[in-house]
Design a protein that fits this description.
Largest sheet: 8 strands, antiparallel
Order of helices and strands: EEHHHEEEEHHEEEE
Bound molecules: uric acid
Number of helices: 5
Strand order of the largest sheet: 1-2-3-4-5-6-7-10
CATH architecture of the largest domain: Roll
Number of strands: 10
Length: 298
């Protein structure tokens, strides 16, 4: 039997970077989790242990910190592009870089009556995590996917689920008024690797996020699948710089509690928030004629 090496990549996962920018007494904070993965002419290290083509993962970690100091950190997509282009350009053996970044957001603490010079206190925001995945290869092809995760949302009415298929194992009662709650993971593919026209990645991200939230709130839902499509559609119709949205929506079930044993009714007011199992609804929504994704989702 002949054995051959298949696809492979290697890198430093989850380099935690906190970058403080000191603007006099006012500090700015970036809190990132950076993962780099490189691939290329890596047969020798796998087949013979010759590491001459391998830029150590330790170096990749160091590059994150050095670039944070040298170039600063503003938009995560731009920082990821900088790292990806650097690695592909730095060694002939490296032909492809994938850089994934998560950004945790912090809000300022501004105490009432504060004299104004204490601008270095922050509280971690509950507004979800911002994400991106950038690919760049030695042929100059680049893809940018932005996203968010852990954005927890709830509609306390305006959600139904009935008319579903049934078999001998189906016990679910049809629902005409239920809670719909989910923790949104959304990723969206930019049509071009260039910065969003007329704006920044910051503005683009804020607007896509707004579209997702507004569509969630404004859709009278007959299924979480329908809500997923409405969310992706709203983002694509509003933001021409993106061409595909992928969503993963865990259905955070909320079951009405039977209060009859206590002589109480429950007109949709008291719920048990189940932890697991949960339904997991996933899907992609694309603009018609969207350019090919290439390696964007790898
Ligand atoms: O919105 C829903 N979609 C489903 O596919 C499903 N399945 C289920 O048990 N509850 C729900 N809710």
């Amino acid at each position: 039997m002949t054995v051959v090496l298949g696809p492979n990549r290697y890198g430093k996962a989850e380099t935690r970077l906190v970058r403080v920018t000191r603007d006099g007494g006012v500090h700015h904070l970036k809190d990132l989790n950076v993962s780099t993965a490189l691939s290329g002419d890596m047969e020798d290290t796998h087949l013979t242990g010759d590491n001459s083509a391998v830029l150590p993962t330790d170096t990749q970690k160091n590059t994150v910190y050095a670039f944070a100091r040298r170039h600063g950190v503003d938009q995560i997509e731009e920082f990821a592009l900088l790292l990806a282009r650097h690695h592909v350009g730095s060694q002939p053996s490296i032909r492809h870089a994938r850089v994934e970044i998560e950004e945790y957001s912090w809000d300022r603490i501004t105490p009432a009556g504060d004299p104004g010079d204490r601008r270095h206190s922050f509280v971690r925001s509950g507004a979800g995590v911002r994400t991106c995945v950038v690919h760049h290869d030695a042929d100059g092809r680049t893809t940018v996917v932005s996203g968010l995760a852990d954005l927890t949302v709830m509609n306390t009415t305006g959600s139904e689920f009935h008319g579903f298929a049934r078999d001998e194992y189906t016990t679910l009662a049809p629902a005409t008024d239920r809670i719909l709650a989910t923790a949104v993971t959304a990723r969206w593919r930019h049509a071009s690797p260039d910065p969003p026209p007329g704006g920044s990645y910051a503005e683009s991200h804020a607007e896509v996020r707004r579209c997702l939230l507004e569509a969630f709130a404004q859709t009278h839902s007959l299924s979480l699948q329908q809500t997923l499509y409405a969310m992706g559609r709203r983002a694509l119709e509003t933001r021409p710089e993106i061409c595909e949205v992928r969503l993963a929506l865990p259905n955070r079930h909320h079951f009405p509690v039977d209060l009859e044993p206590f002589g109480l009714d429950n007109p949709g007011e008291v719920f048990y928030a189940a932890d697991r199992p949960y339904g997991l609804i996933e899907g992609a929504v694309l603009s018609e004629g969207a350019p090919g994704a290439g390696f964007a989702w790898d």
